[in-house]
Amino acid sequence: MAEFALIEKYFTRPTQADLGVGDDAALVRVRPGYQLAVSADMSVAGTHFFADIDPFAVGWKSMAVNVSDMAAMGAEPKWATLSIALPEANDAWLTGFSQGLFACTEQFGVSLIGGDTTRGPLNIAINILGEVPQGQALQRNGAQPGDDIWVSGVLGKAALWLQYRLGKQDLHEMEASMLAKAMHHPQPRVALGVALRGIASAALDLSDGLLADLSHILEASKVGATLDWLAIPKPQLQHSRVSASMMQGAVLTGGDDYELCFTASPKHYAQLVALSVQLDVPLTRIGQITAAAGLHVFAGQNRLEWSNKGYTHFG
Predict the structure, then answer these.
(1) Residue 212 above 50 pLDDT?
(2) Domains, the chain, ranges and CATH?
(3) Residue 52 annotated as binding?
(4) 54 is an annotated ligand-binding site residue
């Protein structure tokens, strides 16, 4: 199939841009008083997903991880471009992939406005653009000593499924299916990110593991932190036996959560509890920012030690 025929068949949809798919470039107009937020993520077969994963799930997650970056900035996702290398133009795979991709764009109000296709090892590169009111973006460098540390959702689900898939953890079939959904169908917290404008002092999304990602906030803000292991929301498994070390590794360093981690002054505690109810999104206070450098995790009086703080591509 020719390149432009492939684009027309699988990736051309109506857009909200001034000029969309089919021209040399797309034109977008940012609303007065807003800034443009831009991010990019790449999904590579064998690194980010297994080759036999349902293509719908690959399409959804490829877009969702980018939408999650917008959520982490408090931005509304608006436009995206897709560049994809394909070993072949397989109709069944492309149909499922494009359906998953557009299911995500439609849920979060994103228009696909351009990109590129070529032959090669399966590689999916997406650039996403969003809007955030001038000066209101959530960034990583605003955490202050005494701030509370919060996370949305439950951490460690995707990481436990990965250990199951790799043959390192036994899981009950029903619970394996539940964890697989967390891995393949993450739900970006866009509404939460928007609501945190003016509340969160720093924020990011959790992709490489809680310890690794939180460290980015600590480094940018020049602060430290203590975490309460007992407070961190974990998968509640009734039918599968998971060791303490396996659970701790999944929750603290596993990655692929795509939840938001943010800091906020204690004065916002009641407001955040109310926001959790309003958005129907679990929000949990898991620790505190400290003036002294370092990231420490305690389970009661016991300090947990980890040499591996999370996923790194070239570690």
Answers:
(1) yes
(2) 3-133 (3.30.1330.10), 148-303 (3.90.650.10)
(3) no
(4) no
